[in-house]
Specification:
Helix content is 33%, strand content 23%. The protein has 317 residues and is α+β, with helices and mostly antiparallel strands. The termini are close together.
């Protein structure tokens, strides 16, 4: 498993606002962050209840979008969006750092408050919440696991989101014609080199497909991936969920890792890549010939030439 880097980053930022009150400089910064996106077209005001605005702002600061998490100023809207995206869980679910906790103060089935989960132990959930208490401040609170006021949780797919972000950062720009796919210099390659020196300083840097995926996963908190194909498959099976793949885009999610095997007269050939989302489109981030191929161009070829394809999805718990 990864170490939930992105969820911990969300809480690290959120804790910087601990103690801020309505109308303070930090409160205004929260509003500014929220209004930089204006979720659902709404502009937050100083007089608004801001528990949900606070949660949304912390997610925005971490680089998450409305495709990743429900950004809203309204708890009911956040729950509806989370259910639509399959990331809402009931009160019995055990959350992790960076998840959102939904509370029902009156225990009447009508949720009316939201905060962020800072830490979870065997018996307690520790939170950081905006607009908490009568004075409207950001504060830390503690709840017993299973407390009646807990309505549920919003649990972003942090591992998949981070894999997607890192794969984009280390791969090459997408384009609309063949010339724009090939990049010989530029920032992505510098990002790859800098990240390699940070996360894999004792390993010889390579440009192969497996080195690319190894760096992506290592930077997301996973153990170093081996480079022998049999070992790669074993490594992925232990840390990811093996998914059925029917060569349909609907089978795929951003952050998925794919492996293919093709056999010809020269023997077996393997390849590995990460599924990424760019401008609403699923693409393949890879390190073959310094290119990042558009997804549909590659999968059409795969249907004819790949003897076997494996799909792995990041576990979130």
């Amino acid at each position: 498993m990864s170490s939930n880097i992105l969820g911990r980053q969300v809480i690290k930022t959120a804790l910087k606002y601990d103690g801020c009150s309505t109308g303070s400089r930090k409160h205004l910064d929260i509003l500014k962050t929220f209004n930089s996106v204006k979720p659902h077209g709404y502009t937050a005001q100083k007089t608004d209840y801001w528990c949900d605005i606070f949660v949304s702002a912390m997610w925005i600061k971490a680089g998450l979008t409305s495709k990743d998490v429900p950004l809203s100023c309204n708890v009911d809207q956040s729950i509806a969006d989370a259910k639509k995206n399959g990331i809402f869980y009931g009160a019995k679910h055990k959350p992790r750092t960076g998840d959102a906790i939904i509370l029902d103060w009156d225990v009447n089935g009508r949720p009316n408050h939201i905060g962020l989960v800072a830490k979870v132990t065997d018996h307690y959930i520790y939170t950081i919440e905006g607009n908490a208490g009568d004075k409207g401040i950001c504060k830390r609170k503690t709840y017993a696991i299973g407390a009646p006021i807990i309505y549920g949780f919003i649990c972003p797919k942090y591992n998949a989101i981070l894999i997607n972000k890192r794969a984009i950062n280390y791969s090459y720009p997408l384009g609309t014609d063949k010339e724009k796919y090939s990049v010989k210099t530029g920032k992505p390659r510098n990002n790859f080199k800098t990240a390699w020196q940070k996360y894999l300083p004792k390993r010889k840097m390579g440009s192969g497909c497996h080195q690319f995926v190894m760096l992506v996963l290592k930077s997301c908190g996973y153990k170093t991936m081996p480079l022998a194909w049999n070992d790669i498959q074993k490594y992925l099976k232990e840390r990811f969920t093996v998914m059925d793949f029917h060569h349909k885009e609907s089978d795929l999610r951003k952050g998925d890792v794919m492996v293919y095997k093709r056999v010809d007269n020269k023997g077996a050939h393997f390849h590995i890549w990460v599924i990424i989302e760019v401008n609403g489109k699923l693409c393949m981030a890879e390190a073959r010939q310094n290119k990042c191929w558009a997804y549909k161009r590659t999968v059409n070829k795969a249907l004819k030439n790949y003897n076997r394809t494996w799909l792995y999805r990041a576990k979130e718990r």
